[in-house]
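Posted in: Structural Biology > Protein-Ligand Complexes

Title: Requesting predicted complex, iron/sulfur cluster in pocket

I'd be grateful if someone could produce the 3D structure tokens for the following input. Sequence and ligand are given below.
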Amino acid sequence: MRPFTSHTGQVVPLDRTDVDTDQIIPKQFLKRIERTGYGQFLFYDWRRQEDGSLDPEFCLNREEFQEGSILVAGKNFGCGSSREHAPWALMDYGFRVIISSSFADIFKSNCYENGLLPLELSERGTARLLTLAEKSCTVTVDLVAQQVMDGQGWREEFQIDPYVRNSLIKGLDRITHTLSLEEHIGSYENERDSRS
Amino acid sequence: MLDKIWERHLVYSQEKQPDLIYIDLHLLHEVTSPQAFEGLRTAKRQVRRPDLTFATVDHNVPTTDRSLPIHDELARNQIAALRENSKDFGVTLYDIDSAEQGIVHVIAPELGLTQPGMTIVCGDSHTSTHGAFGTLAFGIGTSQVEHVLATQCLTMDKPKSMQIKLSGNLKPGVTAKDVILGIIAKIGIDGGSEHVIEYTGDAIRNLSMEERMTICNMSIEAGARAGMISPDDTTISYLLERIKTSDINNSDSIIDNWMELPSDEGCTFDRVIEIDAESLEPCVTWGTNPEMSIPITESIPDPQDADSPEAQDAMERALFYMGLEPGIPIQNISIDRVFIGSCTNSRLSDLQAAATIVNGKKVHENVKAMVVPGSTAIKKQAEELGLHKIFLDAGFEWRESGCSMCLGMNPDILNPGERCASTSNRNFEGRQGKGGRTHLVSPAMAAGSAIAGHFVDVREWLD
Ligand code: SF4
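-- Reply #1 --
Done. Output follows.
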């Protein structure tokens, strides 16, 4: 997994709540058997107008947000299905951080597995950032210091599970870690199998 | 009950680290597994417990004549990949032509694989369905699928617990689907976030296993990690019919073990919500997430009445997408399509409930309606009971089993602007096809709407 320590980038505002995984990556693009190449399908339907042309109003299509690498959105981002294609698409598109006041549980854990940071800010902080981003802003997300700042004097601390933080910083491979506990798994398994 | 199951599966725990828990049953399907197997291959790892791992094809499969080759090349490849992976890694696969094939969450209980006290995972959010048997069952992403394949374990923190107590009795004509839609409308689509919901109370106890599965299935639509219902006599008799007795050495002690699972009298939950079962009505969703529902007797709500600007914005957006105006009685809204199926409502009792309404009537001339049984076995049982005749005579299509129009990964999709009464679980934008408008309802309500051509209060149709 790609380690994450700190990231500075332009913020893209997606002012919608309860953004579900069917919007992040619609089902017709889940038929591939690879982990890569999903960025082009990110928010596929929202990016398009009825006649199939790109909607110039949608944030990802706006000229000024082409370099964006931090997405900020309303509460409960990533609700719906467990498809890991959602974080794959976001990362493949170029996002490194998603900021919201809350995330759906499975989406959050899928992000952690891929080194994409789902950053939970206060509702006020999120709302503020949504407004700031409209006028274009660049922020630095520092996972080590657990803060976001815009270089203009705004700074907010955020909370994250210490274990998760550490794994992200180190880019820890969870399977390798679990396999190092083989002794415990083996003895649990022996006892389990003798019961049934 | 969550604590007990967690305790029984704890492999390793250390302060300031998530727990390592053992997984008893790992279910796979074609869409979320190929990258996980690829990961194993690259790292030269094996599937640790192929005996605890089962696969089926459901999301992509066509529901028309299965003897023909699959048109869609990508879908065909994905199915072929699962076939090859299952073979290479020694995993049992219920393939497209197998008598056991079906939607993953329908077949595992049907085959007796799902048993009380188990930890169950699948790369699919509706894994919460299996909680109806008193299991801890939840959806995981593909990286975690790979993790479980390789280690049979998962690292995670114990979720918080929430009790939803449904006291009193349901009114006649109110189904399990209405119960869960009613609950989601009350607590919101993120109301269960970070929690495992345990459903308790008399109204839950009186439900059949199939109805309990419908409720647990949609726990994820309330944002919950999982849903569960403690095992009782209903659970045991369902399972004894399905588990081969030869598989059980000592059935008494196994049943005793199951019956130790229910939460102890007086135990505490992190959150408790009480709902009076009598207050629930048959529901229809009007918007673009499962929380946006109203009783069938009401009218489309007005965004002006929303309690926050964000909520108002979301409602306006939803009404625009759905092509609806505030204030219109939901029963006045006509529909183009009806879909009876999905892991929420495609079991035999669901098909029976729909057939009871349809019997002897005809599907409205403006409506195209289809029934997609949840498994090949259910299809067969329904045919033995003659249900397919009732549906076919009325003008419904009678299909092979699969996820079908629940998410439209196969050719079964809505056209832009089409309005569908669907027994599935998600009414997100474009879920059933780009521009398609989904209204979630129970099987009986879907059947009634197919006949009437608009939403109806099926209670008026019951004698
Ligand atoms: S029926 Fe629908 S919700 Fe259920 S597993 Fe299939 S696609 Fe998912």
